[in-house]
Amino acid sequence: MLKIDNINLYYDGIHALKGVSLEVPEGKIISLIGANGAGKTSTLRTISGLNKPKTGSITYNDQDLLKVSPEKLVNMGIIQVPEGRRIFAPMSVYENLELGAYLRKDKAGIEKDLQNVFKRFPRLEERKKQTAGTLSGGEQQMLAMGRALMAQPKVLLLDEPSMGLAPILVREIFDIIKELNSIGITILLVEQNAKMALSIADYAYVLETGKIVLEGKGKDLADSDEIQKAYLGG
Amino acid sequence: MDIFLQQVINGLSLGSIYALIALGYTMVYGIIKLINFAHGEIYMIGAYIGFFAITALGIGFFPALIISMVGCAILGMVIEKIAYKPLRNSSRIAALITAIGVSLFLQYTGVFFFKAEPKVFPKILSDGRMNIFGTKAYISYQQLTIFVVTILLMLLLQYIVHFTKTGKAMRAVAYDKDAATLMGINTNNTISMTFAIGSALAGAAGVMVGVYYSAITPLMGVMPGLKAFVAAVLGGIGIIPGAFTGGMILGLIEAMVSGYGNSLYRDAVAFFILIVILIIKPTGLFGKNEKEKV
After folding, report:
1. Which residue ranges form the domains of chain A, and what is each CATH number?
2. Is the pLDDT of residue B237 over 60?
3. Nearest chain B residue to A86, by CA
4. Smallest Cα–Cα separation from B194: which of B157, B236, B222, B150?
5. Do the Cβ atoms of B249 and B231 come closer than 8 Å?
6. Residues of B with CB under 8 A from a CB of A
7. pLDDT tens-digit profile of B100-139?
8. What ipTM was assigned to the predicted interfaces of this complex?
9. Which of residues A188 and B293 earns the better pLDDT score?
10. Residues of A in contact with B186 (CB under 8 A)
11. What would the pLDDT profile of A69-92 be if each residue is shown by its tens digit?
12. Which of B172, B186, B294 sits opposite A99 (nearest CB)?
């Protein structure tokens, strides 16, 4: 289980995360929703070791992650698909996927996972020699997810996978998330698209200006008045 | 025609030196967006390492070249660690001023230890020359060596950057440090490696210039350093083939100015090119305006 306990994060004096706590149990889909600037991305960046919190703790199966380097974190299987996909645009699709497996040494395993990624995302195989920057937005999202899968994730941290995508692609991406969860990958999903995020979440947290203001089962939250009003336009 | 051919040959060997130095400038800029003004001094120290390796150890050109490249690689990594790494997250101007400081520090440390008088580089390559297809133009074996070694190093560099894990990590870090970190790439080691490779190329240039011009001084890195910077900007700073092409073009232009005009104007021409490039196409010959997809 990934456990974030009472994290306080400051950027240039701004108190970005104010005592955020959340739990991501093994095998579940946990959603973290909230408006722009609420601190969702900061939370994921802190988990991945890109931001250092002032106080609080992050543990994975009781191991202190704040003492672990970002590389080691990847080795442990805690993999992030960052906001805006952040693919390596000047490099080929194939090279992007290779970089996903950067720390792995098992050649046969890497090749097998590459074939699995191509099976899951046939478009990537068709375009494997193409420069990643020339892919469409949806294809780039698939590449970012494929790249993460090359690292053999145990916990996948997804930051706004639906951002900027057409509704049909959003549904496709969410289907893939559910499928990845069904093969045993734990998911922490950060989304502005509250409706979709709550619909697939086992449990969800609502972040507002750096604080968790609500939490509960995905369905319960989706039905609650506060969420209806603030996020679902109801 | 003979003069022209002769100036092409001279230009390509001079351009090779600029190209090798420009590669280090451009690689470092590509990965941490720093103009490493101390790069010319690494080239100078490379020449001295070569000098001492040859005079003290009595070894030949190629072993000296390799020793100098290794020495400069280490020096580059040390400079990065001590001077630039602590400033990684400060403003770019702070790092730039530090680079100028490191440059001056190395120049005058060089004057202190090596003395300001030029040292005569031992003749270790044959003075012979070859006639080009029955014309009056000649290529010396030294020029040929410089050109061939540069081409080989350029090919090796392209191989490293495009086909090795280190090279892929370098390109990933250059494009997006955070995303590279999320892949498990150690960005500090990758940046260190970039300094090592860039500095090794400057070291090679230093030894070859020593052999070619047969005199080295502690301030020899200043002008070629600046010219190589012009070459890197001309090709498009941060772009490896651009640095190579920019170096060659600059070498050719200087040779032509010396051959047909007045050699006193060649430095002026080099910096005039810099100004023109910055006005007309600041991204350089190979540079393009990056568009980002959201």
Report:
1. 2-230 (3.40.50.300)
2. yes
3. B179
4. B157
5. yes
6. 165, 168-169, 171-172, 175-176, 178-186, 292-294
7. 999 999 999 999 999 999 999 988 888 788 888 778 888 9
8. 0.92
9. A188
10. 69, 71
11. 999 999 999 999 999 999 999 999
12. B172
Beta bridge partners of A215: A205
**Are B183 and A147 within 8 A, CB to CB?**
yes
- Give φ, ψ of B237 to 5 degrees: -65, 135
Q: What's the whole-model pTM score?
A: 0.91
Does A97 contact chain B (CB < 8 Å)?
A: no
Q: Find the closest chain B residue to A151 by CA distance.
A: B183
% of chain A exceeding 90 in pLDDT:
86
Q: Which helix (H) or strand (E) element contains residue B130?
A: strand B129-131
> Which chain A residue is nearest to residue B169, measuring alpha carbons?
A99
Tell me whether A151 touches chain B (CB under 8 Å).
Answer: yes
Return the residue in A47, A69, A75, A86 with the most chain B beta carbons within 10 A, the one to mutate for interface testing. A86
pLDDT at residue A223, as a whole number: 85
Is there a contact between B235 and B284 (Cβ–Cβ < 8 Å)? yes
Percent of chain A topping pLDDT 70: 99
